[in-house]
Task: structure prediction
Amino acid sequence: MKGIIALAFLILATATFAQDFPKGKLVYSNNMSSAKELKDWILEGKAHVEFKGGWMHMYSPHEENHHVYWCPKDFPKDFIAEFDAQNYAVDGGLCILFFCAKGLHGEDLFDSSMPKRTTGDFEDYIRGAMNCYHVSYYANGRDHPGREIANLRKNAGFHLIESSEPGIPIHFTGVSHLKLIKKDGLIRMYVNDRKIIDWKDDGKKFGPILGEGKIGFRQMEWTHFAYRNFKVWEIATDKK
Result:
């Protein structure tokens, strides 16, 4: 009986969530299946990007460098983003998604006034000249093996905001579907419909709520992941 009640609550919560955050206009769609589709993306750090079977693979040859691959588009302050990811190196790796990324004073990340970021050095992203949120949705770095727990942080400042649920299981090699929702100060992230992040930024404790900005895919040097079907929607507004 308890199991039935718990399932009913889960179904109700899911239905409410769907009603609260319907997808609006599709603002970006990229299959990530060819170099042509990613010709405008910007890579920071040494990494090899290749395409196989409709997927974009990314890794650092000889594990030389952390790296970030930025989508060049500025996304709205409220959005739903989805993509698929698959792990090809279960012995070690760490994946992060940066979002709402802009300069400390609202500059575009690639404005000529911004400091150059060429090596993938983490300090450039967390304590440098930019603001952003980031989620580490796969965590099995060789510096902290087997962590698995997903962290949400707010930058600049590397503020740890939420750290409670595991992200992609560290030995899982199947396809994971990831969904990120940003609505005002609310941030939620799902892996295969399992919620791993659920936090509300009050705009006070760690500074103002971050708004529009860029999204970037970061990997630590030991990582080999593949990605496909990156899509971002506006959140539909109530027209009543």
Observations:
- Residues 24-235 form a domain with the Jelly Rolls fold (CATH 2.60.120.200).
- Residues 46 and 82 are 25 Å apart (CA to CA).
- The helical segments are 2-20, 123-126.
- The two ends are 40 Å apart (CA to CA).
